C-alpha cells in the first residue's frame, strides 16, 4: 500500500509527486480521508468474513460496496447524464444487487443444509459444514459496515481525478495517468490498517507470531496477495478511465460483479460448497448468471453516454 504504488508511480509517472502538489490541499485531504475510511472497511471486512463465512460475507459486503461505490460517483455527474443512460445504468446496478442477494441466499441455504447433514457425523466437519456463529446479527453488521466504508476506495479514486488531470496536462497518457489517483487513497488506507491492526497486534502481543517458524510462507503469500490486489485496482483504474465520464460507476459495477463470481468459484475450490444441497447450488448458479447479466446491462448503459 506504500512501497509498491510509489515504486510503480515513480517508474511510469516520474512527475507524479509534482501532480499531487499542483492540486488543492483540500482535494488531497479528501482523497486521503476516503482512503482512511476504506482502510477501516478492510479491517471490518476481516471480522465480517470470519463471522459469517466467505460466500455469504463476501456477497453481502460486495452488494453494499456496489450500491454505494457505484451510485455516489454517478450522483456527482448526474446532470450531465442522458436519461436513457441513467435508467439503464441504474437497472444494471439493481440487477447486480439481485445477483448478490441470490448468491447470499445460496450461502444461507448451503449452511442450513450442511448443518443438518453434519449432525451426528464423525470426525471434523467440512468447511461447508462449519456452523455460523451465534452472533450472526453482529457479523452481518460488520459486513454492512465494511461494505459502506470499503466503497470509499472507489469514491476516493473518483475524487482524485484532478490529480490525473494535472499529469495529462504534463503530457501523460490518460490511462497511465490514472495510476496516480490510487497513491493518496493507499496512503490513507495504510494509515488506518497500521493504527487499528497494528495497535491490536501490540495490545495482544501477536506481533511476535511474525518471528515464529514457518511464518515466512504466510508473509510471502500475504505480500503476493497485496501485489495482486494493487494490480487489480491498477487495471480497474485504467479501464474506468477509458470508459469515459461514468467509468467509476459502470466500471466499478463490472469489476465487483466479476469479483463476486471469482470469489464464489474459489469458495468451491476450498470446499465451502462440499455437501451443499442441490437447491443452494442452483440458487448460486442463478445468482452468478444474474451478475453476468448485470455486467452486460452496465456495458450497454455506458455505450449510451459515449
What does this structure look like?
It contains 13 helices and no strands. The protein is mostly helical. The protein has one domain (3-204, 218-300).
Short description:
The chain has 306 residues and is an all-alpha fold. It has helices at 3-12, 16-22, 25-52, 54-76, 83-118, 136-150, 152-159, 161-169, 174-177, 182-204, 215-242, 247-269, 278-303.
- Nearest-integer average pLDDT: 85
Q: How large is the share of residues in beta strands?
A: under 5%
- Please work out how many helical segments DSSP would assign: 13
Oligomer designation = single chain
* Cα-to-Cα separation, first versus last residue: 33 Å
Radius of gyration: 21 Å
Structural class: mainly alpha
Count of all domains: 1
Roughly how much helix do the residues carry, as a percent range?
Answer: over 70%
Largest sheet: none
Order of helices and strands: HHHHHHHHHHHHH
Unreliable residue stretches: 119-134
Overall geometry comes to globular
Number of strands: 0
Summarize the topology.
Blueprint: H1 3-12, H2 16-22, H3 25-52, H4 54-76, H5 83-118, H6 136-150, H7 152-159, H8 161-169, H9 174-177, H10 182-204, H11 215-242, H12 247-269, H13 278-303
Helix pairs in contact: 2-8, 3-4, 3-6, 3-7, 3-10, 4-5, 4-6, 4-7, 4-12, 5-12, 5-13, 11-12, 12-13
List the keywords.
mainly alpha, single chain, 0% strand, 306 residues
Amino acid at each position: 500500500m506504500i512501497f509498491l504504488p510509489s515504486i510503480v508511480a515513480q517508474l511510469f509517472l516520474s512527475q507524479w509527486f509534482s501532480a499531487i502538489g499542483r492540486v488543492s490541499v483540500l482535494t488531497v485531504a479528501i482523497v486521503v480521508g476516503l482512503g482512511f475510511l476504506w482502510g477501516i472497511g478492510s479491517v471490518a471486512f476481516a471480522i465480517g468474513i470470519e463471522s459469517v463465512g466467505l460466500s455469504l460475507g463476501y456477497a453481502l459486503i460486495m452488494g453494499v460496496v456496489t450500491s454505494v461505490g457505484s451510485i455516489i460517483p454517478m450522483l456527482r455527474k448526474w446532470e450531465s447524464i442522458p436519461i436513457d443512460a441513467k435508467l439503464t445504468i441504474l437497472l444494471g446496478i439493481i440487477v447486480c444487487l439481485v445477483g448478490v442477494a441470490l448468491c447470499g441466499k445460496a450461502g444461507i441455504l448451503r449452511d442450513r443444509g450442511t448443518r443438518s447433514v453434519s449432525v451426528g457425523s464423525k470426525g471434523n466437519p467440512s468447511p461447508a459444514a462449519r456452523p455460523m456463529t451465534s452472533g450472526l446479527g453482529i457479523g452481518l453488521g460488520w459486513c454492512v459496515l465494511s461494505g459502506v466504508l470499503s466503497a470509499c476506495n472507489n469514491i476516493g479514486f473518483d475524487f482524485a481525478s484532478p490529480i490525473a488531470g494535472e499529469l495529462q496536462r504534463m503530457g501523460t497518457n490518460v490511462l497511465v495517468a490514472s495510476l496516480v489517483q490510487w497513491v493518496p487513497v493507499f496512503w490513507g488506507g495504510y494509515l488506518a490498517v497500521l493504527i487499528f491492526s497494528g495497535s491490536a497486534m501490540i495490545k495482544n502481543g501477536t506481533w511476535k507470531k511474525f518471528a515464529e517458524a514457518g511464518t515466512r510462507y504466510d508473509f510471502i503469500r500475504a505480500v503476493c496477495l497485496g501485489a495482486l490486489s494493487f494490480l487489480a485496482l491498477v487495471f480497474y483504474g485504467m479501464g474506468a478511465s477509458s470508459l469515459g465520464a461514468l467509468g467509476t460507476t459502470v466500471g466499478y459495477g463490472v469489476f465487483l460483479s466479476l469479483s463476486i463470481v471469482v470469489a464464489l468459484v474459489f469458495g468451491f475450490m476450498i470446499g465451502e460448497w462440499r455437501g451443499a444441497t442441490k437447491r443452494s447450488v442452483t440458487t448460486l448458479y442463478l445468482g452468478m448468471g444474474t451478475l453476468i447479466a448485470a455486467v452486460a446491462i452496465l456495458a450497454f448503459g455506458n455505450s449510451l453516454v459515449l
